[in-house]
Each structure stands twice: as C-alpha cells, then as structure tokens.
Amino acid sequence: MSVIYLLLTLSILVAIVFFIAFIYSVKKGQYDDSYTPSVRMLFDDELVKVNQEKLTKD
Amino acid sequence: MKSTQCYHCGDSCDDDLIKFDEKIFCCNGCKTVYEIFSENDLTCYYNFQDNPGAIPSEIQGKYDFLDNEEIVQKLLEFSDGNTQIVTLYIPHIHCSSCIWVLENLHKLNSKISSSQVNFPKKTVRVTYNSTTTSLKEIVLLLSSIGYEPYISLEDYEAGKKVVDRSLTYKLGVAGFAFGNVMFLSFPEYFEVSEFWLEQYKNIFRWLMFFFSLPVVFYAGKDYFVSAYKGLRSKILNIDVPIALGISVLFIRSSIEIIFDLGTGFFDSLTGLVFFLLLGKFFQQKTYNFLSFERDYKSYFPIAVTKISSEGKEENIQIYDVDKGDRLLIRNQELIPVDGILINGNAEIDYSFVTGEANPIHKKSGDKLFAGGKQLSGVIEMEVLSSVSQSYLTQLWSNDVFQKDNKSHFKTITDNISKNFTIAVLLIAFFSTAYWLFFDASKALNVFTAVLIIACPCAIALAAPFTLGNMLRIFGKQKFYLKNATVIEQLAKIDTLIFDKTGTLTTNKESTINYEGVPLNQQEKSILKSTLRASNHPLSRTLYHTFNAVETVAIVQYNEVVGKGISANYEENTLKLGAASFVKNNNEKATLDTAVHISYNDEYKGKFIFKNAYRKGVKTLFSSLKKTYNLSVVSGDNEGEKKYLQENLPVETNLLFNQKPEDKLNVVAKLQRDNKKVAMIGDGLNDAGALAQSDVGIALSENINVFSPACDGILDAEKFNKIGTYIKASKKAIKIIKYAFLLSLCYNVIGLYFAVTGQLMPVVAAILMPLSSISIVVFTTVSTNFLGNKIK
C-alpha cells in the first residue's frame, strides 16, 4: 500500500470532521443570530470591574 | 447638559425632578425601575449605555388573560411538567444594556433558569420553572422593568416557526466540495507528468466525482427545479441556462473520467454552484426586527375582558367575541371589534388606523370602531360585530390580500436571460454543425464546451450583488425593503400616491391656532399653571407653547376625566376642555381637535390642534412633479384642501373622504391605465392600497412599532429623501446593465476557446471564477459609490 492512500484518507477524514462540525453548528442555530454573541462575550469583564469599584467604595 | 436628563430613560425632565441616590429621574416609574435594579445588584445596566431604559407603562389588569391556560399553551415554545420556554418579542431592546439586563433576569426572579436575547430579532427566550412561577409573572416582571413584551393575536395563531436554514447548508456543502476539488485538481493544472502522479490520477478523479455529487444533487437542486418550473410556464428564466450548464458540466466530466478521456470540469462545476449560492445568500438581506407581512392580527390583542350577564369579568379569546357581548376596555387597550360605547370616558386614539394622533372623544351611545386605543380610564362597550366582520378588518377579505400579485414581476435578469439562452443555443448548434462538417470527432466536444462556458454565472451574479448591496445601503439610510425585487420595481415607478394624515403630516408636532378673544397676561399665566398640573396629552402640548409666561399658584384644581379642567386663582375661575364642559352652546360642530377656554364663565375661544406638515413636503413635491404623477389621497374631510392646493404643485391630484377600499381602488384604477404606482402611507387604513400598489412604502415614526403589510418601511425622518431613493434604484439598474455587458465580454472570450475546440479544463477553471469575482467587485464598488452619493 502506498502512503498516498493513507494521506488521502486522513485528509478527507479531517475535512469531513470539520464539515460535520459546521452542519452541527448551523443546526444548533449558531448562525441565526450573529450579533448578540459578539456583545455577550464582553459582559463578564465589565461585571467584575464594576463589582471591584463597588468594593473599593465601601 | 446631562443634568436635565432622566438617569433611567434619558427623557429631558425640566418640570418635576425626582432625586434619588444622587441620580435624577423624570418620573416615579423610572425611579422604581432603578430601585429594582439597585436592590438586585444590577446597576451596571447603566454602565454599558447612557440612559438605556424605558418608562414602565400602566399594565393594571392588562395581562390577566395569561391566567387562561389555553392561551398560555399557544404562546409557549416548549412545555413539559416543570419547565416551560417562551420567546417574547420586546420592542424596546435596542442596546447592549438591554441584552445584559435581560440575560440576568434570573437575578430578579430565581425561578427563571435562563434567558437569552436575540438582538436582531428583539426577542428574549426565557426558560423557567412552571410549578413555581408562571408566564404572567414573567411578563409582569418584564413590564415592571420597562421591557414590556408585545403579545398580539398573531402570536396566538402562528404555530412553531421553523427556521429555514437550507441555503446555509447548501452554501456549506458547495464551499466544502469546491475547496476539496480545487486541491485535488492541482496536479492536473500544472500537468505534472511524474510517474507516481500518473499512477494515482484515477483516485484523484474519482474523489472529485464523489465530491461533486452532493453539489449537483443537493446544493444545485433549486436551479433544476426553478428551470423546470420556468419551462413549464414557457418562460426562459436565468435558471434554464444555469441548469443546462450544470448538467452538461456534470455529464461530460463524468463521461470523461469513466472512459479515461480527461479530468473533467469538476472544479468549475463546484465553483459555479458555490458562487451562485453565494450570490443568493448575499441577496437575502432580512431585517429580522421588521415584518413586511403584517395584517390587523399583529395589532390586536389576544384576549379581552368580557362582562358576563351576572356582572362577572372573564377573559375570553378575541375570536370568541360575539355580537351583543359586553366588553371592558381598560386604559391603553385596543378596541378589537366595532361596538357602541355604554359608559365611561372614551378618548380613542386612532393613530394605528388613520395616522391621526390626537385622540377623539366619544360619548356613551357613540359608535366605536375596531382598531382604536382607549386612552383614559375604563370603558364598557357592547359588541356590534365580531372581529372579522368589523369595519376595518373587513378590508382584509379583499382579494388583494389573498393572492400574491407581485410574484409575476419579470426581473431584469429574466428579461435578458431569454435572449441570452436563445443566442447560446444557436451558437452551440451552429458551431457543432461546422465541426461535424470538418472534424466530426470534435463536434460533441465543442457542443458541450459552448454550453459549459456560456453558463451565465456572471450574469446571474450581477443582479443579486448589486441589489443585495443596495438593500444594505438603503437599510443604513433607514429605508428598509422587503427584498431585492422591490428595488427593480421602484426603478419603474411613474406615479406616487401619498396618504395625508400621518404621512404628509407628522403626529410628533402639532400646530396650535387660537381662535377667539385674545387672552391677557394674567389669563395666560393662570392657563399655563392649570395646564402644568394636567397630564392629558393635549394639555402637555399646549403647555409647551406658553414659554415666556409666569406661573402662579392655583387652587381648587379639578380635572374631570374626558371632559376638562377647572381651576381657581384669586377670584377667577378658569375652565378648559371639551365644548360641552366649557358650556359653549354657540359652538358649531367641527371635526377639529380643540381645547375650549372660558374665564369666569365667559367663553373666550379655543385652541385648535392640527398635525403639522413634515418639513420638506413642499420641496419634495416640487422636485418630484417633473418626473412623476403625484396624488394625495386622504381619509379626512376637505378641511385642508385649500392649504394643500396652495402649497403643493398644481398638477397634484387631491382626493378626500377616501375609505380604505376607495384608496385601494384609486391605485387599481391607475394600474389599469398601465401606471406603475408607489403608495406611501402609514396607517392600517392604507393597508389595502399598499398591498395593491406596485411598491407599497409604509412610513413610520418609529420603526419598532408596527406598520401595515408593505414592500418597504421608511423611517419618517427620511421622508424627504423618497425622490433620491427612487433615483438611486434607477441607477442600480443601470449598474446591473453595465455588469451584464462586462460578463458578456467574458462569455465572448470563453466562446472563442469553446467554438475553436480548444477548451481545456484549466481555461474554464480560470475564466469562471475570474468573471464571477470581477462582476462582484464591479457591482459592489459601484453601488458603494452610489451609496455615498445619496447620503
């Protein structure tokens, strides 16, 4: 067996894994709302900062 | 200065400030929301955005219908024993603060397990424990913090909505296959004739074949379906040559690899489908927070309070309302059916229906029409006709709302594709005939090559990219269109019809004229002081017109809801309000909204409220009159005829006293004379005309509130830009035509290779993406240039 068969199989398998991940994410609705997550990911940091401010005030 | 702005809602609050926690609030409602937030450690709500909030509105009893289990079940998205999920539409969602606070709802009510905001759609999806809390509690909680959800009859009827994601899947499949096939074709492109590559070439080719299968049979499926439908109705649409191209590409490539004749064109095939889908995807610009398909159902509540014969109040579903029932309409509730007012003070706001902002006063025994909103206190009414039989809702039984009269529009691409397809087929047959005569072995090769290279990928991309980009540009300019076809229709418009009230006029400002005996300084100051104490909308408006007047301390202030106010200052009595209240018997009946004044029981005069015309109406009309036929169609009486005749161009056709059906017929009549009509309206009474017209544009003061079914929604502040937008649409069509020319050049080059029998896979693989990409670049750049000009 030539190594090329192995390489081809592997590369296509990797590609298919990513493809399945894509299908899965579309199905989960990740592409339905592309705006809110971009805002949401910034929240945690802000929260911590505000709490600290409050603590120093008290 | 920030100091005069309410910390919560940002309204300017000059009159009565409420100070709390070193912050300034305009009213108790705002203060209460702040208190709720500060008690629950949610004050960082105010850190993301200045003054993000809204004043919570009165909702006393409004959501009692959510006690009705049957109605609740219809609204829920998911429900099992303990957990329920509901998605609520909240028009106020507008900034990151909103997202933050709504996703922290569980801090306000521990029974809520999670909540997730979809910002573009302005919805929040709440998951909660149904054994310890209820939908009603959640709705009340949201309302109390200024995020009142909007629940309408439409939510009741709509089943579970299925999101159509097939285009995303198809695009994914095509892109995946395109990328892989490209990699697999690389050895062939460079004609590496090394021994080991020769040996494995079949493996590569068969892999490409398998990658192309889902592209042809899944991703490209729509083109075959559309071409078949087109042919069946004898239309050569653009999908016919595309489907032809795809099938020829696939069949010839398969044959080539089966008989080991060559590599085939799998790279071009997958690339073609990928680019075409990309165009489709780009054109599909949707404004999730807007709906263009609304009818009265999205305005109407789900349930009303019925008073049974024993005097008990119960919530019943709107469709169950029968003639003769007695209904209780609370403050701020919508009247769902036609009926007769039995008792209570009715101040009905018909702005949903007519665009007229000032409320109309009704006496008991008067007829009430569906669609009005009660503004002061509780009223009782007796039902005259059921929901679907009411004056307003009957409009929707008109044929216009049943059939989709716009699907027959022939797009610019369809127009060119007919000639294009015929030309391509002719070239294919002639060149085949030529080669049959000279070198029969090449004939089939040439025939397929012509069909492959002439596949109008670039032509099919020109319109989606131009129009898709125009949609985005218009969207940024606050002109929201339903889909790309509307731009093409807009470019063909030659007649414009405007509604008057709410469209040419604005309900944000009113002009106030005083008729009667002039008031002296003291009378003015008493009047102003009295107005200051009143919360009636007319009083508020009138109050702001007395700027340079001192206020005095009045005594014995007495407001009779729905009638008027009386107040004393020193020895003087002031009365203002409805004509009957002020005891003005010699008043002739007029249709104007007016506030009457009497001073020590002596009638002084009246303030007449009129909606002010929008700025720029005159300039807009005079700039439009050269190119378009103009009409103003109004449901009002002829009171303003003279004013309009003086201020609008003489060519303008003025029609008054038009019922909703009449408006529709005016449009239909013009269309029979082969006019392309655009209707610009705002209220539900324009809904028929908007649906009948070629392009129906709904004007909206606030795009978050509701506008009737239409093709486009225009923000009212951009009203005077209508002319510019139509012109821009015409230019967009010109851009598409230039793009057609450009892509024809590519086709001619490609055809040269095809006809002479020299089409190599690598030529097709270069030419196809090159033409597609250059069309995309050309259309995008030129539409952006156009977009900059219309700013």
Automatic annotation (TrEMBL), chain A:
Coiled coil: none annotated. It holds the Pfam family FixS. Keywords: Membrane, Transmembrane, Transmembrane helix. The chain crosses the membrane at residues 6-26. It comes from the Bacteria. PANTHER family: FIXS PROTEIN. This is Cbb3-type cytochrome oxidase assembly protein CcoS.
UniProtKB/TrEMBL annotation, chain B:
Residues 302-396 form the P-type ATPase A domain. GO terms for molecular function: ATP binding; ATP hydrolysis activity; copper ion binding; P-type divalent copper transporter activity. Residues 87-148 form the HMA domain. Gene3D superfamilies: 3.30.70.100, Calcium-transporting ATPase, cytoplasmic domain N (3.40.1110.10), Calcium-transporting ATPase, cytoplasmic transduction domain A (2.70.150.10), HAD superfamily/HAD-like (3.40.50.1000). The chain crosses the membrane at residues 167-186, 206-224, 236-255, 261-282, 420-438, 444-467, 735-755, 761-786. It is a multi-pass membrane protein. Residues 5-78 form the Putative metal-binding domain. GO terms for cellular component: endomembrane system; plasma membrane. One of its GO terms (biological process) is copper ion homeostasis. Belongs to the cation transport ATPase (P-type) (TC 3.A.3) family. Type IB subfamily. PANTHER family: ATP7, ISOFORM B, P-TYPE CU(+) TRANSPORTER. This is Heavy metal translocating P-type ATPase. It comes from Polaribacter aestuariivivens. The lineage of its organism: Bacteria, Pseudomonadati, Bacteroidota, Flavobacteriia, Flavobacteriales.
